[in-house]
C-alpha cells in the first residue's frame, strides 16, 4: 500500500516585516537583502502568539482540504527545530489544539529537512500498514531564536507552518520515492549553543547570547546545492523516474541564489519551480509545506502531476521526496 497526500494547509502570522523595516534595527539595506537572498518581506509571530497555534491552523486547513475530521487522524508528526518547550516539545500542543484526543504524536527534529523527513517516515508507516491517516506538520518560530542584532541571520528568517495529511494510496500514486540523508560532520554550521542538556541555560549563557541561532552562512550555502541535487537524483531513481517526468520542483526556500544554482545543475525548467521566499523568507521546516499548499491552492500544481520536494538544513540533514499529487 502506498501513501498519498490527501490534503494540505498552511498558516502565516499576520504581522509582516519588510526589508526596509529591518534597516531600522541593523546595518543593512533592501538592496543587499534582495540581491543576496531574494527575500523582500517575512511574517513574524506577535509576542502573545504561540508557535503551536501556527501548526494547529495549518493542520486544521489540511483536514478541511481532505474533507476529514480529527477523529480520522491516526498519528500526528510535528517537524520543528524550535519547539514551544524543550519538554514536552510542540506536538502535544498541536494535538490538543486540533482535538486529536489520545492519538499518538511525536516531534521530529531534522533541521530544515524536517518536513521531507516527516513525509518519508509517515509514508513508510502507512506503507507498512501501521497507520491509515498521518498528519505531518512542519512549523517554525525562528523569530524566537533569532539574534535581532545579528544582520547575518536576522534578515533571512520568517515564521510559519504547513501541513499535509497522508492517507493510503494505490500503485503509482502519492509518495513514489524518497531519499533522506545526513552529514553529521557539518553539525556546527548551524546550531544553537545553549539551553540544551550539554550547556543548560544560565545567566552566563544568556549574557553570551547562547540562546540565539548561530550560522556559518557561506558553509551552509556551499553544501546546500550538492545536497539537494544528490537527494533529488536519488529520490527520482528510487521512484524509477527521471527529471523529464517531473512537473514541479519545490526546493527549501532559503536563498534564491541557492535555488537558481540547483535548477541550473539539474537542467530543470525554472518556470516549473515553486518560489515564495520573496514573501515568506526562510521558514525552515515550514518552507516546503507552505510552498506546496500555496501552489496547490492557486491551481499551479494539479492532480496527477509529479512534484519533487527537496531540502537541506541544520544537522546537517538533506533529502527529497517524489510525490504524484
Ligand atoms: O535553511 C538553512 C539555513 N541557512 C541558509 O540557507 C543560509 C545559506 N547561506 C546564505 O544564504 C548566504 O551565505 C547569506 C545570505 C547568509 C550570506 O550571503 P553571502 O553572499 O554568503 O555573504 P557573506 O556572508 O559572504 O557576506 C558578504 C558581506 C560581508 O561583508 P564584508 O565582510 O565583505 O565586508 C557581510 O558582513 O555582506 C555583509 N553582510 C551584510 N551586509 C548588509 C552580511 N549580512 C548583511 C546584511 N546586510 N544583512
The beta-strand count equals: 13
Arithmetic mean pLDDT: 97
Residue fraction in strands: 15-25%
Number of helices: 11
**Count of domains:** 2
- CATH C-level class of the largest domain: Alpha Beta
Major sheet size, sense and barrel closure: 5 strands, mixed
Topology:
Elements: E1 2-11, E2 16-18, H1 19-22, H2 30-37, E3 41-43, H3 51-66, E4 75-79, H4 91-98, E5 105-108, H5 114-127, E6 134-141, H6 151-154, E7 159-169, E8 174-182, E9 190-191, H7 203-207, E10 214-215, H8 217-238, E11 248-251, H9 256-266, H10 277-280, H11 287-297, E12 306-313, E13 317-324
Parallel strand pairs: 4-5, 4-6, 11-12
Antiparallel strand pairs: 1-7, 2-3, 6-7, 8-13, 9-10, 12-13
Bound molecules: oxa(dethia)-CoA.
Architecture overview:
The structure is a single chain. The chain has 325 residues and is α/β, with parallel strands linked by helices. The chain has 2 domains: 2-172, Thiolase/Chalcone synthase (Peroxisomal Thiolase, Chain A, domain 1), CATH 3.40.47.10; 175-324, Thiolase/Chalcone synthase (Peroxisomal Thiolase, Chain A, domain 1), CATH 3.40.47.10. 33% of the residues lie in helices and 24% in strands. It contains 11 helices and 13 strands. Strands 1-7-6-4-5 form a 5-stranded mixed sheet, sandwiched between helices. The longest helix is centred in the C-terminal third of the chain and has 22 residues, at 217-238. The chain binds oxa(dethia)-CoA. Residues 28, 32-33, 36-37, 112, 151-152, 155, 190, 215, 217-218, 220-221, 224, 254-255, 282, 284, 313 line the site of oxa(dethia)-CoA (UT7).
Amino acid at each position: 500500500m502506498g501513501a498519498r497526500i490527501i490534503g494540505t494547509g498552511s498558516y502565516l502570522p499576520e504581522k509582516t516585516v519588510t526589508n526596509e523595516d529591518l534597516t531600522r534595527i541593523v546595518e543593512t539595506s533592501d538592496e543587499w537583502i534582495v540581491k543576496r537572498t531574494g527575500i523582500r518581506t517575512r511574517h513574524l509571530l506577535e509576542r502573545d502568539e504561540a508557535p503551536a497555534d501556527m501548526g494547529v491552523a495549518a493542520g486544521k486547513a489540511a483536514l478541511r482540504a481532505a474533507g476529514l475530521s480529527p477523529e480520522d487522524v491516526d498519528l500526528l508528526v510535528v517537524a520543528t527545530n524550535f519547539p514551544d518547550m524543550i519538554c514536552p516539545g510542540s506536538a502535544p500542543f498541536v494535538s490538543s489544539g486540533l482535538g486529536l484526543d489520545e492519538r499518538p504524536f511525536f516531534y521530529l527534529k531534522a533541521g530544515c529537512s524536517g518536513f521531507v523527513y516527516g513525509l518519508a517516515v509517515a509514508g513508510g508507516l502507512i506503507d507498512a500498514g501501521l497507520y491509515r491517516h498521518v498528519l505531518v506538520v512542519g512549523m517554525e518560530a525562528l523569530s524566537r531564536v533569532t539574534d535581532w542584532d545579528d544582520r547575518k541571520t536576522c534578515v533571512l528568517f520568517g515564521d510559519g507552518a504547513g501541513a499535509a495529511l497522508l492517507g493510503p494510496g494505490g500503485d503509482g500514486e502519492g509518495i513514489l520515492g524518497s531519499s533522506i540523508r545526513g552529514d553529521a560532520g557539518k553539525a556546527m554550521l548551524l546550531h544553537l549553543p545553549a539551553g540544551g542538556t550539554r550547556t543548560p541555560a544560565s545567566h552566563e549563557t544568556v549574557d553570551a547570547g547562547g540562546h540565539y541561532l548561530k550560522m556559518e552562512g557561506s558553509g551552509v550555502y556551499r553544501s546546500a546545492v550538492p545536497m539537494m541535487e544528490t537527494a533529488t537524483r536519488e529520490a527520482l531513481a528510487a521512484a524509477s523516474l527521471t527529471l523529464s517526468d517531473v512537473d514541479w520542483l519545490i526546493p527549501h526556500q532559503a536563498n534564491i541564489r541557492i535555488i537558481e544554482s540547483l535548477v541550473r545543475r539539474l537542467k530543470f525548467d525554472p518556470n516549473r519551480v515553486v518560489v515564495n521566499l520573496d514573501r515568506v523568507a526562510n521558514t525552515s521546516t515550514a518552507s516546503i509545506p507552505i510552498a506546496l499548499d500555496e501552489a496547490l491552492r492557486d491551481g499551479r500544481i494539479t492532480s496527477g502531476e509529479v512534484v519533487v520536494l527537496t531540502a537541506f538544513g541544520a544537522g546537517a540533514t538533506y533529502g527529497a521526496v517524489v510525490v504524484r499529487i
